[in-house]
Amino acid sequence: MTTLHNTLTLHIEMMKIVKILNLIGTLFSTIINMGTISNTSSDSLVLIISLLPFKEAARTCLLSKRWHNLWRRAELNVEFNERLHVVAAEPAQREIQKQDFINSVRRYIARANNEQINVSKFHLVLTLSQDSRVIADEGIDFSVQRSVKHLAIDFSDAAWNEDRFEIDEWAAEENEAARTYVLPESFYLMNLVLESLTLISCNFNIPRLANFHLLKKISLAWIEFPDTNLHKLLVNCVVLESLSLKNCWDLDRLDVCGNDLKLQSLVVDRCWYRVLDEFRIEAPNLTYFKYAGFCAPLFEVKNTGRVKVLDIDFGLEEDCRPELGDSLNDFLHKLCSISTLTVCTYTLQVISMGKDPIGVQNPLGVTSLTLKTEMHGFEILGIKFFLCSCPLLEILDIVIRPGRIFYDKYRPPQYALRNPAMVWAVVDQCITQTLRRVRVMGFKGTPNEMNVLTYLIQNGRVMQNLRLIISREVDDDGSPDTYDLRAQDLLTVRRASPDLQIAIM
Which residue ranges does the record assign to the F-box domain (predicted)? Predict the structure, then answer.
């Protein structure tokens, strides 16, 4: 499975690169074929060149005399990704490819320095070894010389499991030095120019970031990152606007607080905690918050009235109790400014176990809702909860995917046990007044899917568009042909909206 995953990842990355190059090539052809090249300003051409890889940017000098030196003015985005170069299966051949890759990086660095090339972003992806440590040091020295504004150093391994890893073994002191790259002293000379920093499996001196007065974006992954480090980072990086922590470990809690924080975007993705007892968030400028991982029993949220986008996924959580449902409900309503909300299978189950299982007490201002769901029966009340709690809802996305179902812990409200049909008896306000667009990804046409969609079609008075994207999976529920036939059945359902268009894809 790992080999297949790596192959697919490589294929997708290559497709992205080819697509970008094709788009840029088309843009150049259009400009030239339309005869508008003479009317295009040099500044615009420099901007286009800056989107090209180094070799292609340099080749533009051959187009005409006017283009001869334009590429030297462009601020190039330079990326070296070992995974795209080292693809052989045999260890000996892989070693040869790796040495070729390292040599190509060195050649580029030498040429760019000799020709005084402007580099805006330098991105280096390597597997950790003594040679790669040396080339990373050289890359950072190069970034200092070229006054790079955006630096990314990635020493992650494609084989690492992002959802589960043995934290005690991973963080063991004897393995730490072998698994982590430490930024060289030269890195701290970038304090006057660096605007964004991405470090994956790299360690650094947090207090020394206090002199980085332009550093607005930091992304960290696969490193030990205790609470004290998080506090130091927020204190020292006074202009920080975006912070992302992914697969970091050794935290006790998520504590992001400070009335003077400039932070606008916060992403915490599958981090590991010694004991997760609470989330504390106090960030007056925060507008985007994405969290994936374990669920805390206590959410303390203050001064967050600007949050517009909330994405929560508690897919790692193994506990499911009514108290957690109340805690989540309270958390959602403290973030009363959110207009775009994404929730997961866990939330859909636990939210209906709380004191307000149908969501009538405090409505949310959400206009765009994404449900990541398995469409299991235990999630149906949660789906109804959010439809009831979002009276202004205009856009609904249902992403059908596997999730953890709590067969031994889920406890539905008594009214649902007495009469399951009551779930869809009451039509929610958003369904009749505001919901206009619905998209279902991974449609299989299971009974729960059909019931939800029939409810929407029969009662959605202002619905304009329903898109069903058929699942490609073959399992106990059938095959794509079976799913397509079930989708066709929805075309015969009576529609409350005369403007509703249903598309099956």
Answer: 42-76
The Cα 19–Cα 85 span in angstroms is 18
**For 311-379, where are the alpha helices, taking DSSP H only?**
322-334, 345-350
Cα–Cα distance, 100 to 121 (Å, whole number)? 22
Q: What is the per-residue pLDDT across 400-435, written as a single tens digit (0 to 9) for each?
A: 999 888 887 777 765 555 455 677 888 999 999 999
Cα-based distances in Å from 24 to 21, 48, 53, 84: 5, 8, 11, 21
- 3-class SS string, 226-263: CHHHHHHHHHHCCCCCEEEEECCEEECCEEEECCCCCC
Torsional sign, CA 10, 47, 287, 380:
negative
Cα 123 to Cα 13: distance, rounded to the nearest angstrom: 15
Number of C-beta neighbours around residue 336 at 10 A: 13
* Cα 492 from Cα 465, distance rounded (Å): 15
Q: Minimal CA–CA distance to 182: which of 165, 168, 203?
A: 203
